[in-house]
Amino acid sequence: MQNPLTMQMADRQLPDFQAIRPEHVLPAIEDLLKNYHRGIEAWLQSGSSADWSLVESEVAWADALNRAWSPVSHLNSVADNEHLRKVYNAGLERLTEHESWRQQHAGIFQAYRQLRQSEKYSALSPVQQRIIELELRDFHLAGVDLSDKDQEAYRNLVMRLSKLGSKFSENLIDATQAWTLHVEDSTRLAGLPVAELNLLEGIAKNHGQSGWMIDLSAPSFQAVMTHADDARLRCEVYTAYVTRASDEGPSAGQWDNMPLIVEMLSLRHQLAQLLGFDNYVEYALARRMAESPRMVLEFLEQLAKQARPPARKQFSTLQEFAESRGAAIPLEAWDIAYWSERYRQAELHLSDEELKPYFSLDPMLEALFFTAGELFGLTLEPDTRVPAWHPDVRFYWVLDCDGKRFAGLYMDLYSRKNKRGGAWMDVCCSRRILESGVQLPVAYLTCNFAPPTGQQPCLMTHDDVQTLFHEFGHCLHHLLTEVDWPQVNGINGVEWDAVELPSQLLENWCWEEEILSRFARHYQDDTQMPGDLKDRLLRSREFQKALFLVRQLEYAICDIRLHLEYNPNEPENPLDLLAQVRSEVSVVPVPSWNRFLNSFGHIFGGGYAAGYYSYLWAEQLAADAWGRFREEGPLGTGPGEALRREILSVGSSRPAMDSFIAFRGRPPEPRPLLQSYGLSGEPCTRLDQRRAQS
Ligand SMILES: [Zn+2]
Q1: How far is it, in rounded angstroms, from Cα 470 to Cα 446?
Q2: Is residue 69 predicted with pLDDT exceeding 90?
Q3: How many other C-beta atoms are found inside a 10 Å radius of the C-beta of residue 67?
């Protein structure tokens, strides 16, 4: 049987999506895994001294696997069916086993270490040396260089932590699903817009009920918090939501996550110490751009110091507004989202329906390609002959200023059945030098915009437009690479507190005057967006941002300090630490029975332990990088070329901090981030200033 998943390797072809069938998946993966394992064993048995050829062979084996797996994993996300899902899950299990085999392989580790210590090392290029260094770092973090006894302890810790993390998530899911509120009297839901009412009606239907039902899923919770006029209803839902999996609230004690949190903090500390770190934050930062716990904490605390006064001011403005509309003051925790939305409507009266006719898809793609052309001299050339998985998919070759092809991009932009929701970028294949020539980098850009109808093109919200620019930024990072080794090119291996830099940076252009006036035109009569509408849109970007920022800071500081200040001899009650951080950072009331930590899935159920700061960190990088475009011109080729040369083209072939400094001429500063929120150290936002003046 000819297998399209392995055939494409031979001549650097793009995946033949129309030929790939579920029955091709497992044979291809098994073949390629066997090939990898045999290759390694043969190399180790040959007794040859370690040299670069081992690295090169590993690249070839791993690349073959990635090229076969990438279309499978992509199809599983965008064209799901039962048969495919089954083989996908089986394949994923095999690959996970393989990765852990590779990462724990003492023989491969020894070979890399030998190479590092031999004379051959100094003859390698800086990029090759970095690849060796990163491999050795990862082997160390996987515990391969520990004594047998410590390795066993390491494995036990990792296993127990993974169990605790799963249990944490299960408790949270169970507690979330255990609570619902059936509403039969529609007057209780006064204030909810039709779409939100439909959502709650759907939930009731799923439970076999008439009327409406509120549950604790995020959309349902947000619908009530943002829109329900009834403060008692908001309080009831808020209470159930913020006490999930804890010792408080309607299911108090039933799925309490606190004992798990306490044990996880202790085990993470032990794990870090076993690997030679002082604490878990230090361990987590070994793979990140931020260089030390001190650096992270100073960054967060400096932001908090500057954001708190304007946040206070924004909150008091909000209270004044609420009071003028008859609300009882002080506002409670469950009043804030509701009154924020009222205030936002009164100030900006922005609606998606008013904006969408100005953001139709094709002109927005033109805007995107125009930006890429101005900044980097790129052209995107559509090619309808490339096989795809659905007729709506577009494929583009990316051409450099000399007209030469150097990358490829799939865009799959409309929502449809059997396609995962949300927006993301993924790697199809990475740049590599082969005997037959260069294997070009190719990426997938996936969104879920409303498809066109008979009468209307695809009309987008401005959020959608921003998402498109964001994902395109990730794609550029992958496609503009000039490094020939897949371990460190494109987005591969980039420190994950830096990986959002290109994407968040690109978002700025969809707010730019020149882009909006050129491309944001009414789809029916090509008229420009009215000045007043544009003005309200631009002001919405900074609206009440200080309040948002201090909330993010509260989470990030709490996460870092829980892991940094952990003392095994006298473990502090995590709730005390949370209360302390709140008293230092928060500006809005939080009830003492709020058990936010018990549902903080990012750091106890997901991969963000000692990493929540990275959202703000990446925003800082993007805002600071954008500062250079503001200084030299947003569509200037000077900063565009520098961005490409110093950041986009180098991938992780050098530390992200070095790349940033090369681009900006200095390490990142938080001031531009504050400015992007309209908080340049002045006491209040631009919006509030405008009000004060009028
Ligand atoms: Zn992103």
Answers
A1: 11
A2: yes
A3: 26
Catalytic annotation, pick one of 471, 495, 554, 619: 471
CB-facing half-sphere around the CA of 644: CA atoms within 13 A? 18
In terms of CATH architecture, what is 4-145? Up-down Bundle (1.20)
- CATH code at 355-490+507-538: 1.10.1370.40
Q: How far is the CA of 503 from the centre of ligand 1 (A)?
A: 6
Q: Is 387 buried (19+), middle (13-18) or exposed (0-12) by CB count in 10 A?
A: middle
Query: Is-contact 477 502, C-beta < 8 A?
Result: yes
String of DSSP letters for 553-573 = HHHHHHHHHHHHS--TTSPPP
Mean pLDDT (the chain, rounded): 93
> Is the confidence at residue 575, as pLDDT, over 70?
yes
Strand, coil or helix: what is 407? strand
Residue 243 has pLDDT above 90, yes or no: yes
Check if 495 is active-site.
Answer: no
Counting every residue written for the chain, the total comes to 694
AA letter at 359: F
Ligand 1 centre to CA of 65 (Å) is 25
pLDDT tens-place string over residues 602-612: 899 988 999 99
**Distance, CA 611 to ligand 1 centroid (Å)?**
15
Local confidence band at 237 (pLDDT 50, 70, 90 cut-offs): very high
ipTM, 2 dp: 1.00
The DSSP letter of residue 459 is B
User: What separation in Å is there between the alpha carbon of 95 and the centre of ligand 1?
Assistant: 25
Q: Is residue 681 predicted with pLDDT exceeding 70?
A: no
User: pLDDT tens digits, residue range 620-666?
Assistant: 999 999 999 999 999 988 999 999 999 999 999 999 999 999 999 99
Euclidean distance between CA atoms 102 and 527, whole angstroms: 58
* Same topology between domain 4-145 and domain 355-490+507-538: no
Residue closest to 342 by CA, chosen among 219, 193, 239: 193
What is the b/e burial string over 396-410, where b = at least 16 CB atoms within 10 angstroms of the residue's CB? bbbbeeeeeebbbbb
Domain locations along the chain: 4-145, 179-242, 355-490+507-538
Confidence of residue 694 (pLDDT cuts 50, 70, 90): very low
Provide mean pLDDT across the span 59-71. Answer: 95
Q: Strands, DSSP E only, in 353-441?
A: 379-382, 394-399, 405-414, 424-429, 432-434, 437-439
